[in-house]
Design goal:
By secondary structure, this protein is α+β, with helices and mostly antiparallel strands. Helix content is 56%, strand content 9%. The protein has two domains: 99 residues, no CATH class; 147 residues, OmpA-like domain (60s Ribosomal Protein L30, Chain: A, 2-Layer Sandwich), CATH 3.30.1330. It starts with 5 loop residues before the first helix and ends with a strand.
């Protein structure tokens, strides 16, 4: 039998006062620390809430200031009626924009400060692409006005917006007359410009190595190949670009007179030369005849090109009378013989 002593009893009492290795005093201190830490967290959160409330209050103040400024701008904007549904919608939209996209609202306010008439332009230009213009707009738009406005070009619309205040005092009839006058002036300008937009002339001179045998209408081989090749392609492109259907071939010569003993067969053989397969050699006794004979030779080669068969090809002679710069011959030596001896090809539409 083990005798219990006072020491063993004290040790047992000590063990009963220990929790997880800590004394009751230590446990109490730990508990107090946790409570203080929790209170600190709550205090920090309260401080954060106060900051947020303060920021929201500041934002609300700024919003009220912006709305006040917007109302001031609207109030002093000319020709805008007070209390209209349109202005109410603008103010409500501004408030919503400030709450959701403050940067956009600031941009809008800045734009209004720089241009107080911006509302007038918005009011006219943002109502669903002209289709739903109503009396809510600053300037009431009637059906007749809407009909005229709907026919404006983009450029005319821009001009209209930039002069909205003036345009608001124009009646539909006056507006229609202005548009008609502008359209007439534009058409006249286009017609004038089109009148100067003639098809280019293809000039084939001896200086560019497009030649005939001396004194005759016989084509040099290289010239013949070019006519049915690259020259025909160039002519066809010009015909299509200018919607033309007639090809004119004009023969030009130098002013040097031909021998008196020469004879001509152009009167007898020109038609057969173009329409038959017989080998006919054309002869001329003067420059007018030589220019015509050479135009016939080029015309015959062009008639062989399949892509040109649907077009009318006409031969002409200008003899020595017209210079390469489209002037009548004056006897000057501005151009040498190779430049004067040439074939010109022009296109046009039938009358």
């Amino acid at each position: 039998m083990v005798n219990s002593t006072s020491i063993s009893k004290d040790a047992e009492s000590y063990r009963r006062g220990v929790v997880f290795g800590l004394t009751m005093a230590e446990v109490l201190l730990l508990l107090i620390f946790c409570i203080l830490l929790f209170l600190k967290i709550i205090n920090d959160r309260l401080n954060d809430r106060e900051k947020q409330v303060k920021e929201l209050s500041n934002q609300n103040s700024e919003l009220n200031e912006d709305l006040a400024a917007l109302r001031s701008i609207i109030a002093v904007s000319p020709e805008i009626s007070e209390g209209s549904e349109f202005l109410t919608e603008v103010v409500e939209a501004a408030a919503l924009l400030e709450a959701t996209q403050s940067e956009k609202a600031s941009e809008m306010l800045q734009a209004l400060q720089e241009n107080p008439k911006l509302l007038q332009q918005i009011q006219l230009s943002t109502v669903d692409e002209w289709a739903e213009l109503t009396a809510e707009a600053q300037y009431s738009v009637t059906e007749s006005e809407h009909a005229v406005l709907s026919n404006l070009t983009e450029e005319q619309k821009q001009t209209f917006f930039s002069n909205a205040e003036i345009a608001s005092n124009i009646s539909p009839n006056e507006l229609e007359a202005i548009v008609a006058e502008a359209s007439k002036a534009e058409a006249s300008s286009e017609q004038k410009n089109a009148g100067n937009n003639w098809p280019p002339i293809i000039s084939l001179s001896e200086a560019k190595d497009y030649s005939f045998n001396v004194g005759s209408a016989t084509l040099a081989p290289r010239f013949r190949d070019a006519i049915t090749g690259s020259i025909a392609d160039q002519i066809l492109q010009i015909l299509r670009d200018y919607d033309a259907d007639v090809i004119e071939v004009i023969g030009h010569t130098d002013p040097q007179p031909m021998r008196d003993d020469r004879i001509t067969n152009l009167d007898d053989n020109s038609v057969d030369f173009l329409n038959s397969t017989r080998d006919i050699s054309l002869r001329a006794k003067d420059n007018a005849g030589l220019g015509y004979a050479r135009a016939l030779s080029v015309t015959k080669e062009l008639m062989k090109v399949p892509s040109l068969r649907e077009y009318t090809i006409l031969p002409y002679s200008a003899a020595q009378m017209i210079t390469p710069n489209e002037e009548l011959q004056s006897g000057s030596d501005e151009f040498d013989g190779k430049q004067l001896r040439r074939i010109e090809i022009r296109v046009r539409r039938k009358q």
